[in-house]
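Quick board copy: two proteins, each given as sequence then tokens.
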Amino acid sequence: MSQRKPAQIHGLLVIDKPAGWTSRDVVNKVSGLLGEKRVGHAGTLDPMATGILLIAFGEATKGVRWWQDASKTYETTVRFGSATLSDDAESPVLRTAPVPRLTPERVQAALPPLGDLLQVPPAVSALQRGGVRDHARVRKGEIIVREPRPVRLETVELLGITSPDVQLRVTCGAGFYIRALGRDLGVAMQSAAHLATLRRTFGGGFALADAISLDAFQKLSEDERLAQLRPLPEALSRVLPTLTVDDALVLAFRQGKQPVVPGDLRGDVLVLDERGRAVCVAIAHADEAGARLVVERGFVPPDAVAAETPDQADAAEQGE
């Protein structure tokens, strides 16, 4: 069995995804430009959608979960008068309905409550059943019926109304579908609706001001492209609290111990050494003396990554 070659490039790239590209297409493009195969992304954007797409390389791929779980903000145009198969403008119209009288009061009253709620995902999505994604099943003519899933809606701001369109800014938790929000808004107003536009303006702790367009990235030199990568400690500290520890505690983590530190830390914590390098993400549990830290994901320091063997890379990725 061939061994995996250790990654040579590490960090997080913040891309402003263009319309018409799948998230995987963008990942493949920048991966090819950088010549790095160990790559992942934090949060799929539909082909129609634009905006923040976080692409992780090397050791940074271990942090994808935390960027993906962080809150995201979108700006969207909900178009009334027709419903589509995919709940956006990328698929055929299923039915039409009269455009309702769109006023701020009526729209606000039809929006779902903030907080935790149940949402039925769109029929066309990347969700899987039996190892096959729903969008692939739909293309084969299957009828997809999904059960409601728990999601979180944090804020909804009405930006404007130009009938038949309503512009919204939405902040939500992981797994929330803006397409489903538009679809359900149409139903709530006794009409039909789908998304005409969708743009992610914030995600994983990064805003559009932090992003570079795919076109601009392609025009950079090799060194300029590498300079766009955010170091793992900086990027993860956007979504996790940090704790700096001395060399003795770093060694304790490497040995699989569960050190106790003073303070009231709880939940996931990014642990850094005194040089600012990422040691691990640990879960802080309540302890009589403060917080007991249990390693959830270990990281290999940048100066050690280049020298590690494939077996060491696998062990580090498993937090060993």
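And the next:
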Amino acid sequence: MNAPLNPSFVRSLPPSRADRDHDGGGDGDGDEDTGGDVDIAAPHRHRTIWISDVHLGTAGCKADFLLDFLRWNDSETLYLVGDIIDGWQLKKGWTWRQSHNDVVQKILRKARKGTRVIYVPGNHDEFARGYVEHAFGGIDVVYESTHVTADGRRLLVTHGDLFDGVIRHAKWLAHLGDSLYTFALALNHWVNRARVRMGFPYWSLSQYLKHKVKNAVSFIADYEHALINEARRRGFDGVVCGHIHKAEIRMIDGILYCNDGDWVESLTALVEDQAGRLEIVEWKTMGPRDEIGASAADASALA
């Protein structure tokens, strides 16, 4: 039996919460081994997964969705492409739910079980750049990384903030924009609560506004070309980034541009299969309420 899912990705229906927790042990992420008496489908296996812009520590973080994605997707290598923890927001106020802890524990558990986890910090978690070339809990912290796909393409992996003119030259304006963005996410929370009650799926108001504003569209184009030019200058076949919360894969002037999106609006990841094929996957459906509990089923409406 399968849960009704976004057609861009298919996964098996997870076991009930009681089944998942029946052994009472483990890491506290509710995803422990349950023994041979429960028929649990194996996670989907990728060669590589890239996620970014999770913004743990903020009200807008969709940690429940990310945790669900991580439970049902494994990979040989997992890239954390920046803004995993939102240091900017944590300085203003503390919003750290149990689901945020669970995401951290799940990533650490993957590292312990053999997944190579590479953390490339961004501007919101720039504090982690002070620990570059160190490893914590099996997670390697690096300034940037080079990924070679199964078909031999060399990709530059970077968060992308260093190619954002506002971040580089007017950081105060970036902080102002962050405050306005946080307000838009809060408004998005109430819009989606109403949508859920009317039977409509999750929809991102903030993402819609961002893509309709002419200046924002121009900024995104400039950002993409700055990254493409850097990749070309350094002899890469492409680039993987985050930062702007706009998931996309496309060729720009002969260079592959990949943005893995975010986990506050689009709820997306970039994945590579064993042949080297790259695709964006969305994760907007978590399964029936009676299987995973009301709190997770309503996650699309919770900021």
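Board note added afterward: The first strand starts at residue 44 and ends at 51.
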